[in-house]
Specification:
- The protein is mainly beta.
- It folds into three domains: about 25-115, Immunoglobulin-like (Sandwich), CATH 2.60.40; about 120-435, Endonuclease/exonuclease/phosphatase (Deoxyribonuclease I, Chain A, 4-Layer Sandwich); about 465-614, Jelly Rolls, CATH 2.60.120.260.
- Strands 11, 12, 13, 14, 21, 22 and 23 form a seven-stranded mixed sheet that branches. Strands 15-16-17-18-20-19 form a six-stranded mixed sheet. Strands 24, 26, 29, 30, 31 and 33 form a six-stranded antiparallel sheet that branches.
- Helix 1 links the parallel strand 11 (about 120-130) and strand 12 (about 160-165).
- It starts with 5 loop residues before the first strand and ends with a strand.
- InterPro entries: Endo/exonu/phosph_ase_sf, Endo/exonuclease/phosphatase, FA58C, Galactose-bd-like_sf.
- It holds the Pfam family Exo_endo_phos.
Length: about 625
């Protein structure tokens, strides 16, 4: 038998002086160029710094061959990686996902290899997700509709390995739903990780299309409620070790980090301190990490096959909060050396999502919380991790999902639960080298969240001073939620409606709610900025609590010359993120602005600041 031809080409690190590599200096047989603002460039200049670009690879196309192209953009002086991509092509053309051109000198590291078709490797789709009470929304959905929609969504993702947290009795329905109508060669098997008689204790699960060789059962160092897995065999005979993880959720840092970021953004003291926030990992999670990495994984994994973990780690990413991303949106200049996730970094594990989406500012990847809001600081607590001692695995793409499928939007479930759980799902495509055609279906990709700057720049124009503004509202909480607080210039005060469950509906009418701003005279407006409430409240123990109830999600902006006759100028929607949202008006003339909030989180309306610009 003739051995399939395989030729490896040496990686080339090309120094870009001062901005980019010329095409003539490309790696091996491929020529590289850049697509920036729709233009193809060989040498991006200083005017492209901070802009979104992609890298184009052009090379030979030979019948019966597959090219693998690996590239990275690295800042030369600091060594920061801003982009990674692994691409496969049979026609000699490939394009990376977007990256932001960094300041100063940077390098393009590029290499390519060629494989005979059928020898590039096997694509595997991974998915991890906390299902919130087995898809019942923690028991709040008695109809079963959310679980039904959840299964439809997972079927569209179509993972090969599905790491599940909070199965809680829905595992049989999920398996049946995933396998309904599938070919016999495409069926899932169910691997129980947490073994318990009562459904409410059956936490961790694996669903997989791969052959299950061995199930990794409970070890004394950590219970199967928190960790366990299986050895899975690929179609080409190779295998991987797959583990589902749920780390302790006590001492959540979501509210303290929101509070820290908001205060740092506006120059206020950070309380609790970063050291106090870091100590929350010490309570339970760090001991679990030590047990997993030092005892359990070494007990089961005796070879160099790839190790993959998926689950809800209830901890923030060490790599996201290094100095590289201190100026990113939602970081407010802060660096936080998270101890729990750093244990996995030190043990040789890579975060799949951050590995392929290297820029935490451009690709924040929030997974918490799709229900109660994402807050001011990007909270990523659900991960797919991998360890690959023999470089047998390639990360092709990864994304987070935090929104229902279009056909599931608009219904009663969607109003309170815009996703099927309070956690986002993490999906990734990887390739294990060896026999196989290489990527054989579209790669999952994250959409860039292009938002330069730690806090959004103000819209064009001049802000109207608070002293020239007044405000009224259709409903408000006296003193603590007076509408005047929305135009007082202080982002730490806010207007707040009564809650919709108040006894007297004349005091607390259901949405829509109206808040009206009188600008004192007719103005020619360029924009209006809305800032949702920023301040955290404090518990009796003086711990910060984030309550995004009232954050507007959908509404209409209206204008008037006399406060009687109103005209609609914009339909507005906002993400569940604590940050300013601008509506551009382009010369609209009005004395009065009125925001009609049709849908606010929790049925209430809250706004920290309304600032018109002229």
């Amino acid at each position: 038998m003739t051995r399939p031809k395989r030729r490896l080409l040496i990686a080339v690190a090309v120094l870009l002086l001062p901005w980019a590599v010329p095409a003539a200096a490309s790696a091996a047989s491929f020529v590289y160029s850049y697509r920036c603002d729709g233009k193809i460039l060989t040498t991006p200049g200083p005017e492209q710094v901070g802009k979104l670009c992609t890298i184009l690879a052009n090379g030979p196309a030979v019948a019966g061959q597959v090219h693998e192209i690996r590239m990275a953009i690295r800042q030369r002086t600091l060594g920061y990686v801003w982009m990674r991509a692994t691409l496969y092509t049979t026609n000699g053309k490939a394009e990376s996902h977007p990256f932001v051109v960094p300041q100063g000198e940077f390098e393009l590291d590029a290499s390519d290899a060629v494989f005979a078709q059928g020898q590039a490797g096997t694509q595997v789709r991974l998915m991890t997700w906390n299902l919130l009470g087995g898809g019942t929304l923690d028991g709040k959905d008695y109809t079963g509709e959310n679980l039904k929609q959840l299964i439809e969504y997972v079927n569209e993702v179509n993972p090969d390995v599905f790491f599940v947290v909070e199965a809680y009795g829905s595992e049989t329905a999920i398996l049946q739903g995933l396998n309904a109508g599938r070919a016999t060669t495409d069926l899932y098997s169910s691997v129980p990780i947490t073994v318990a008689e009562e459904a409410k204790y059956r936490n961790l699960w694996l669903f997989t299309k791969l052959k299950v060789v061995q199930r990794y059962t409970e070890r004394p160092e950590i219970t199967d409620f928190h960790f366990g897995g299986a050895k899975l065999q690929l179609p080409n005979g190779k295998h991987i070790h797959a583990f589902t993880v749920w780390s302790r959720h006590e001492d959540s840092v979501f509210a303290p980090m929101h509070h820290a970021v908001v205060n740092a953004q506006f120059g206020k003291p950070i309380s609790p301190s970063i050291n106090t926030i870091l100590s929350y990992d010490d309570t339970k999670r760090n001991a679990q990490g030590q047990a997993i990495l030092q005892k359990v994984v070494p007990y089961y994994v005796k070879d160099d096959a790839p190790v993959i973990m998926g689950g809800d780690f209830n901890a923030w990413s060490y790599r996201d909060w290094t100095g590289q991303f201190a100026k990113a949106r939602g970081h407010a200049g802060l660096t936080v050396p998270w101890t729990y996730t750093k244990q996995y970094v030190d043990a040789g594990f890579y975060d799949v999502f951050r590995y392929i989406n290297a820029d935490a500012g451009l690709y924040p990847g929030r997974t918490w919380s799709t229900k109660s809001g994402f807050g001011a600081a990007p909270a990523r607590i659900d991960y797919l991790l991998f360890r690959d001692n023999k470089a047998q695995m390639r990360v092709l793409g990864a994304r987070t999902d935090v929104r229902r499928l279009p056909r599931h939007q608009g219904g009663y479930l969607d109003q309170e639960y815009p996703f099927y759980s309070d956690h986002g799902a993490v999906i990734a495509d990887v390739l294990v080298t060896g026999t196989g055609p290489g990527p054989n279906r579209p790669i999952v990709m994250e959409k860039p969240e292009y938002a330069p700057g730690a806090w959004p720049a103000p819209p064009a124009g001049t802000p109207i001073p608070p002293a020239e503004l007044s405000a009224t509202a259709s409903t408000f909480k006296p003193h603590v939620g007076d509408p005047r607080l929305a135009v007082d210039g202080d982002p730490f005060t806010y207007y707040h409606s009564w809650y919709p469950d108040a006894v007297d509906p004349t005091v607390s009418p259901a949405q829509p709610h109206f808040i009206t701003v009188d600008m004192g005279q007719e103005r020619t407006l360029s924009a209006v900025r809305f800032v949702p409430k920023l301040a955290a409240v404090f518990s009796a123990a003086q711990n910060p609590v984030v309550n995004m109830t009232g954050t507007p999600l959908r509404g209409v902006l209206e204008i008037s010359a006399d406060g009687t006759w109103w005209a609609q100028v914009a339909s507005v929607t906002w993400p569940r993120i604590t940050g300013p949202n601008d509506v551009h008006l382009d010369g609209v003339k009005a004395r009065y602005l009125r925001l009609r909030v049709d849908n606010g989180m929790g049925g209430a309306t809250a706004i920290a600041e309304i600032t018109p610009y002229e």
